[in-house]
Each structure stands twice: as structure tokens, then as C-alpha cells.
User: Fold this.
Amino acid sequence: MIDPLSEIITLLRPRAVFAKGISGAGRWGVRYSDFGHPGFCTVLEGSCRLAVDGQEPLVLVAGDFVLLPTTPGFTMTGFEPVTPTFIDPKSEPDPVDEVRHGDPDGPPSVRLLGGYFAFATVDAGLLVSLLPAQVHVRGAERLSILVRLLTEEAAERRAGRDLVLARLVEVLLIEALRLTQRPDATPGLLRGLADIRLAEAIRAMHGQPARSWTVAELAKAAGLSRSAFFDRFTRNVGVAPMEYLLAWRMALAKDLLRNRNADIADVAETVGYGSASTFSTAFSRHVGQPPGRYARMAAEG
Assistant:
């Protein structure tokens, strides 16, 4: 069976960059500016406050896991009033030892494992837009284990390290995201997949991206009337069905064009266009440059 979530994670090509222990002691608080890369943390012991820009503030406790696919600005503090210390993650070097906030010698009130990674694809923005802005999971021991494994592997320089880290991050992402695959999730792919009827239509689009789908055909796959399907899809996924299909086709096309031997006519056929010229027009409108130029720039980069 086609698994849209796994396909998207595969196209994002996550790779681990940094993972480290973090703790806070005494009166402490930090304010991180917007970072852009995906960030994550799991709370080992204690508790703290987390306020991510544009999201509801959270009180994190032992066993909690948080994933921020784009890591906007956020503030993390203890529970005493404090003026947070500003940190720009883009200019600060990655620390070698555990990151300590607040009293350097006092007993920590919270201990976390956290870090960030990068998506290898240059098209991350399109795909990440389908994911929730903030993932918060409580009491997920499997996620805590994965973060520990990531942290341990990142600290070593053993053979196969990069491959192990990349696979661990993929598993971490899928595990975290499928735990938020609920009907009450924020609009996006996960909420769409949580709807049994919409999931059938989404899997159909992913399974046959070259097919000339219509809203009526997708509605039939979902077992809904055309109007009910359109409204339900748009409300739950956040975009109209044909807009989602176009975004998925363009994501696939970009991935194929990064292959140095890619033939534009073959790519066009694979993603559902009858001719290279029709595909080039659609690709240029969506991406902002023709496929040939995109392929050359991808090869040079």
C-alpha cells in the first residue's frame, strides 16, 4: 500500500546535524531567534516552559517530546520570572559539551536531549508546509529512545555514522508525525490521512501521480459526493485537492530533475503531463524557472 507520509519524508532526505544534552538550573531563560532547520527535544527529567512563536505555550515535563519542522523563534524558561538571554542559533557555534542555561553549578531543574537536523532537498519548504508547525507528544518512550540513540551516535565517529544518523532521523520523524495523525490535528497532510475517506484519495494521488485525476474521480475513491469531498479535503488538508496534486507532482518532478541523466520528456510523462512543453509551462509557473534551468542549477549545487 502507498504510504504518503513515508514518501514525503523520503523526498525530504533528512540528515542529522547536531544533538546534545541541555539543562537549566536556578533562574534561567533563553530566547532563540528563528532558525529554519527542524529542531527537536525530549525531556529526560524535571520540567520547563516552552513558548514557540505562533503556537500555544507549553509546560514540558519528563517524557515529553517536541518537534518543530521549521523551528521559528521560541522562548524556553524555568518557572521564575526572568529576562531571557538572546541566542542566535545561526551565528552561535555548536557546543562541544552539554548546554547549560542559568546557574552553571547548581542542580538542574530540567534536563533534555535536543538538537536539529537539515533536509537535504532544496524543495523542503513545499513539503514541510504539509506538516504541522509544532508536534508535542506526551509520554512517548519510543521517541525518547530514538533521541537517545541519535545523541549517542552523533557524539561518536564510528564507521557508518552518517547513514545511521540519517535513518534514525527518518524513523524519528515518522514516529513523531504519525502520533499526531488525528482528526483534531491542524490542517495538513496528517489530518487528511487521519480521515479514512480522505486517506483513500490521498493514497490514490500518490499511487498514480501521472493519472489525469478529476475531483469527481477522487471523490469516488473517497466514497463521497464531489462537493462533500472538495469541502472536506480543503478543510482538513488546508489546500484544494487539485492544488495538493499539483504540489505533489512538482515535488516529484524536482526530485527526478536532480538526476543528472533526467530527460524532461520522461519526467513530464511520469508526473502526468502529455508533453514536455506543457510540463515546462506548468513547472515554470509553479517553481519560477523552467525545468532545464532547474536541473542545471541542481547539478551545479
